[in-house]
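wait is this the right file?? whatever heres the structure
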């Protein structure tokens, strides 16, 4: 049996890029406008899991990061930050 260890996860699964492609296709003629930002988000998306929470960050024209803190398995809040590149 394969045990899942979130601490080893750093990059998103390839299925997320397929999902972004499908969503972009559904926009019709706006496919390029929709897919390019999602593609760059996928390419720069990083996860970091720690004992007290997780963070997710990506870049496009600015850095974006989200930190979620957990205590006892319950959601305790989150913070978002943006930095212009």
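ok assuming it is, sequence goes like this
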């Amino acid at each position: 049996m394969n045990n899942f260890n979130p601490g080893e996860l750093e990059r998103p699964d390839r299925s997320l890029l397929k999902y972004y492609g499908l969503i972009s296709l559904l926009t019709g003629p706006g496919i390029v406008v929709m897919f390019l930002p999602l593609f760059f988000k996928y390419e720069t998306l990083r996860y970091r899991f720690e004992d007290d929470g997780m963070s997710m960050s990506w870049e496009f024209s600015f850095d974006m990061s989200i930190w979620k803190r957990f205590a006892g398995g319950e959601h305790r809040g989150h913070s978002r930050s943006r930095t212009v590149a």
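The two ends are 43 Å apart (CA to CA). so i think its the right one actually
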